[in-house]
Amino acid sequence: MNQSNASHFSRIARALHWTMAALIVLMLLLGAGMIAGDPAQYSRYIVWHKSIGVAIFMLAIVRLLYRLRHPAPALPDDLSALQRLAAHGSHVALYGLMLALPLVGWAMLSAGGYPVALLGGLQLPAILAPHAPTYAALRMLHSVLAWSLFALVMLHLAAALHHGWVRRDGVLATMARWRG
């Protein structure tokens, strides 16, 4: 992602970041609840899971378009080339997962012959014909991508805290600036 000379992300970028962070955490919790929770609650969780997935997908598109027009603040000059590559690569991976996971979930449900019914009664059209082997493969892929997102979010959080508490280089403050 491009970088700018700004000292912090804009209010819009911060609002998108923190809204999506909350939705992603909620989504991961819902996913875990669907797998390990009360089977009687599954149908309630799945409608929320699908709806939040669509919201994340749409916000990821908005966020990516916004980010392309409003680059991130520059990283500290003393970061190594490897650290810069890791920062860039992890952000690309986060955006990729925020876009891929909902699409894979939608394709999986379509291949399983399940409706993609959202809150408010909206139903998305199937994007694949029902096909059990495709459903099974996409279900596995959806799980792998979800675990990858979880791991990457934890890594992102660890890196942010490292910048804020250990390096104290202002990187965390670019996104955690609550006023002004």
What do these coordinates show?
InterPro entries: Cyt_b561_bac/Ni-Hgenase, Cytochrome_b561_oxidase, Di-haem_cyt_TM. The chain is mostly helical. The chain has one domain (about 5-175): Fumarate Reductase Cytochrome B subunit. About 70% of the residues lie in helices and about 5% in strands. The strands form 2 sheets. Strands 1-2 form a two-stranded parallel ribbon. Strands 3-4 form a two-stranded antiparallel ribbon. Helix 1 packs antiparallel against helix 2 (about 40-70), helix 2 (about 40-70) crosses helix 3 and helix 3 (about 80-110) runs antiparallel to helix 4. The chain is elongated and about 50 Å long. It starts with a strand and ends with a helix.
